[in-house]
Design goal:
The protein is an alpha/beta fold. It has a single domain, classed as TIM Barrel (Alpha-Beta Barrel), CATH 3.20.20. Helix content is 41%, strand content 17%. It has five helices and seven strands, in the order H-E-E-E-H-E-H-E-H-E-H-E. The strands form two sheets. Strands 3-4-5-6-7 form a five-stranded parallel beta sheet, covered by helices on one side. The chain has a two-stranded antiparallel sheet with strand order 1-2. Helix 2 packs across helix 3. The protein is globular.
Length: 162
């Protein structure tokens, strides 16, 4: 475990030093950190929560302030771990989460977003994504749901991933 942590820290230090502080601009003008941290393997019980939280904090300290997750990663435990790791520094984190295509009917987008916000302990997401849409996804409903969340201040921007 210690060797894995040390190796990850060395790799992260090299990657972060090349991109720390760099950003990209979205078409709407949103400034997004160029380097971030994924979290699909967090909250699965493979490592103690304290180790996973420290890995996130190390990434943040190295300039990786975008954190990408989903309410479905670890049945929401990934978002809970992230909330602990970013406590007291939400304003410097670009927080991305996702809603699954299976959750987008009716008020599913709003319910999923509210659940994520509660787990994070924040009142907004910087970016909310539709995760892995399927051919039958009704995009007009997805767009309307995202726009309602954006208008309400729950999300700042939205998009599609995968």
């Amino acid at each position: 475990m210690v060797a894995v942590q040390a190796s990850a820290r060395v790799l992260a230090t090299g990657a972060a030093s090349k991109t720390a502080g760099r950003t990209v601009k979205a078409p709407d003008g949103t400034t997004i950190p160029a380097l971030g941290q994924g979290s699909s393997h967090l909250g699965l019980g493979r490592h103690p929560p304290a180790v996973e939280e420290e890995a996130l904090r190390t990434g943040i300290s190295l300039g990786m302030t975008l954190i990408d997750t989903s309410g479905n990663y670890g049945n929401g435990r990934s978002e809970e771990l992230i909330s602990h790791a970013i406590a007291g520094q939400r304003d410097r984190i670009f927080l991305v989460s996702k809603v699954e295509a299976s959750q987008v009917s009716g008020d599913g987008i709003a319910r999923a977003c509210e659940a994520s916000l509660a787990r994070f302990g924040t009142d907004y997401l910087d970016l909310y994504l539709l995760h892995s849409p399927v051919p039958s996804t009704q995009f007009s409903g997805v767009v309307a749901g995202f726009e309602q969340l954006r208008t309400a201040g729950k999300i700042r921007a939205w998009g599609v991933s995968n």
